[in-house]
Amino acid sequence: MSHAPHPDAGTDEPRAPTSEVWATLTDEQRQRVRATLVPIPRSQMPPVGDPHINAERIAESSLGGWFRRRGRRAYIGRGITVYYPGERRFAPDFFVVFDVPEGERITWVVDHEGRGLDFALEILFDGDRKKDLERNVEWFARLGIPEYFVFDARRVSLHGYRLGDRPGVYTPIIPQGGRWRAPHLGAELGLQNGRLRFYLDGALLPIADEIEAALEDALNEALLRTEDQARRAAAVQARADALEAEVEALRAELARLKGE
User: What's the predicted TM-score (pTM) here?
Assistant: First the structure.
């Protein structure tokens, strides 16, 4: 093939070629194709507010820290444009892909990366409920994304879906004990004080602010213990000095009496 086919042929926006076409391209042609697969313009992205920002921050902080502590290689995307082969592009609020090299991305091109999304999360507030809770449920299942969650920040509700026995069809995740299990992600999701949180075997996965606060509390407690121990040591030393002075006074008195 003399040149890479234009990925936007017949569409209103860039679109990655099918996997069959991608397989026929040279490395140079693939680089040219990737250069056309640009992020969705900000002008076309829905506005976000604190409910989105806070939920994304909690997800990234708790899961990112947990992955690092486990030594698990994982890429976390927030609003990154994703290109599946032959599909229209989309930008989930949050997603995770396991076992890929670290590094910054501008877009996620599935055929280039060699992996699709392992976990996707949308945060719903004033957005399109039908898109997140109906169209995406059908579409993401067809794409083969193992687990998909929607956090409705306005209604403070959570909806989870996973691929089941039927290929390309999601099964709703039924919460147990207030937790939605996401076995592919390896964690559980739940709601705490109106916020989306992540759990491991029932234990809350902390975010960076909470870890910092816990470390600060532990440091303050250690300092208080040290100060208390120093005060106790000073008191003991003062008592020892007083006793030594009394002994010296008694010795001096005894010497005087013997001298008489």
Answer: 0.79
